[in-house]
Automatic annotation (TrEMBL):
Keyword Iron: yes
Alphabetically ordered keywords of this record: 2Fe-2S, 4Fe-4S, Iron, Iron-sulfur, Membrane, Metal-binding, NAD, Repeat, Translocase
Main location (coarse class): membrane
Domain of life (superkingdom): Bacteria
Protein name (record): 2Fe-2S iron-sulfur cluster binding domain-containing protein
Protein's organism: Velocimicrobium porci
Location within or outside the cell: Membrane
C-alpha cells in the first residue's frame, strides 16, 4: 500500500494477489492472461527510462511475457468492439427517439457511471447499455477465446491493466459478469502497479525485443487507441456510424473538430443529411454543468461522451502522477500519433472484430451480443443511494 507523506491517503495495491508465491501466476492449473488498455502504453513509456519512440507497445508485450503471463492481449480490440455495439445502439436510438430516453450517454467510464447513478439516478437509462472495453474484453476472453483456444473458462485468470482506480470497482459490479466463469475480469492493476512490478522484477526494457500481441484479441485500430483521450470514444463511434449509415468510409480525420482539451466541447456533425449534435465533456464538474443545462432545456444533444478524469483516461487516477497538465496533453498527442500511423483507423475494419462477429456473435446488437456485451445499469445500486426503478 502506498501512503501519502502525511499518511492521510492510501492507494490500493493489488499486485500481491497475482505475484505472491502461491498466487495464480504460479498455479500450473491456471492460464493467466493480461489485457492492456489504450492509455497505459503512453504513461508506461514515460516511466520506462527509454526515449518515447523506443518504448513501444511491442516492448511492453515482451515485458509482460517476462513477468509470466501466458497470453498478452490488447484492450484496443474491445475498444473496437465497444464502438460496434455502442455505435449501432446510437443509430438505433437516433431513428427511434420516441422509444428511448435521450440523449445517449457513453458508459465506458465507471467514474462517470457512478456519478450519474448517485447524483442523477433518473437519467441512468440514458446510459449506453454497451459494457466498457474492459468488461467486453473480459467476457469475450472467457467465452469466445476460451472456445477458440480449447481452455476451460474457469481455468482462465484474466488481469486487466488500466489507467484507472475506478476500474477495480467496475470489475466487482455483481451484475456485470456474463461469461458464467466467475468474474470476467479477475484482477485490475493500474499503470502505477504495473510499473512498480516491472521495477521489482528488474526488467531491463532496453534489452527487450519487440513482441506481438496474442491473437485473437490482439489487434486494435487507431479508432480503438484514441479511446484513451477525451473525445476519442465519440470520434471513433462517428467514424463507424458514418460507415454503417452510408456504406462507405469518411476520411479518418473528418471528425477531428471533436478533439481538444476544453472541458465541454460541442459539435454538429452531418451524416447523410441528418445533423447529429454531440457534446464531449471531461471532469465531473463539467459533467454536472452539462446535466444541469440539459435538465433546464438550455442545450440539446443526441450523443454525449463523458470522462471523469481531466483529459480522459490519459490523465486517469491510476497513471503515474505528475503535477502539471502538460503530461496529459503529451500523452493525448501520443495516442493521436498512434492513430495517425495505424494501418487501420476504423473499428469496423478490424479483422479480428469481423471474425468475432462471423464466427461467434453474428452481428452487432444480436441476441448473443446483447447477452454478453450489454448490461443493465439499473440492476445495481450505488451504496447509500436509492434503488432505481425505470418507468
Ligand atoms: Fe477511469 Fe478516469 Fe478513464 Fe474514467 S476517465 S475510465 S475514471 S481513468
Amino acid at each position: 500500500v502506498t501512503h501519502c507523506p502525511t499518511g492521510a491517503l492510501s492507494a490500493r495495491d493489488d499486485k500481491e494477489q497475482l505475484f505472491a508465491y502461491d498466487a495464480p501466476i504460479a498455479d500450473p492449473d491456471k492460464v493467466v492472461v493480461v489485457s492492456i488498455a489504450p492509455a497505459v502504453r503512453t504513461a508506461w513509456a514515460e516511466e520506462s527510462g527509454l526515449p518515447r519512440e523506443a518504448a513501444t507497445p511491442g516492448k511492453l508485450v515482451a515485458a509482460l511475457r517476462q513477468m509470466g503471463f501466458q497470453y498478452v492481449f490488447d484492450t484496443n480490440y474491445a475498444a473496437d468492439l465497444t464502438i460496434m455495439e455502442e455505435g449501432s445502439e446510437f443509430l438505433e436510438r437516433l431513428s427511434h427517439k420516441e422509444d428511448f430516453d435521450y440523449p445517449l450517454f457513453t458508459s465506458c467510464c465507471p467514474g462517470w457511471v457512478r456519478f450519474l447513478k448517485s447524483q442523477y439516478p433518473e437519467l441512468t437509462t440514458c446510459l449506453s447499455t454497451a459494457k466498457s472495453p474492459q468488461q467486453m474484453q473480459g467476457t469475450i476472453i472467457k467465452t469466445y477465446f476460451a472456445k477458440v483456444a480449447g481452455i476451460q473458462p474457469e481455468n482462465i485468470y484474466h488481469v486487466s491493466i488500466m489507467p484507472c482506480m475506478a476500474k477495480k470497482a467496475e470489475a466487482d459490479i455483481p451484475t456485470i459478469n456474463d461469461s458464467g466463469a466467475g468474474k470476467d475480469v479477475d484482477l485490475v492493476l493500474t499503470t502505477r502497479e504495473l510499473i512498480r512490478q516491472c521495477r521489482s522484477m528488474n526488467i531491463d526494457f532496453s534489452s527487450l525485443e519487440e513482441e506481438e500481441f496474442d491473437s485473437p484479441l490482439g489487434t486494435g485500430t487507431g479508432a480503438g487507441v484514441i479511446f484513451g483521450a477525451t473525445g476519442g470514444v465519440m470520434e471513433a463511434a462517428l467514424r463507424s456510424c458514418y460507415y454503417l449509415v452510408t456504406g462507405k468510409n469518411a476520411d479518418a480525420d473528418a471528425f477531428k473538430e471533436i478533439r481538444g482539451m476544453d472541458g465541454w466541447r460541442e459539435s454538429s456533425i452531418d451524416i447523410n443529411n441528418t445533423t447529429i449534435k454531440t457534446a464531449v465533456v471531461n471532469g465531473l464538474g463539467n459533467a454536472r454543468k452539462l446535466i444541469e443545462a440539459l435538465l433546464k432545456g438550455e442545450v440539446q444533444y443526441d450523443f454525449v461522451e463523458v470522462m471523469a478524469c481531466p483529459g480522459g483516461c490519459v490523465g486517469g487516477g491510476g497513471q503515474p502522477i505528475h503535477l502539471d497538465e502538460e503530461e496529459t496533453e503529451d500523452r493525448r498527442e501520443y495516442l493521436y500519433s498512434l492513430d495517425q500511423n495505424a494501418p487501420l483507423r476504423f473499428s469496423h475494419e478490424n479483422p479480428e472484430i469481423q471474425k468475432t462477429y462471423e464466427d461467434f456473435l453474428e452481428k452487432p446488437l444480436s441476441h448473443l451480443a446483447h447477452e454478453l456485451l450489454h448490461t443493465d445499469h439499473t440492476a445495481w445500486t450505488v451504496p447509500g443511494t436509492k434503488k432505481i426503478k425505470p418507468e
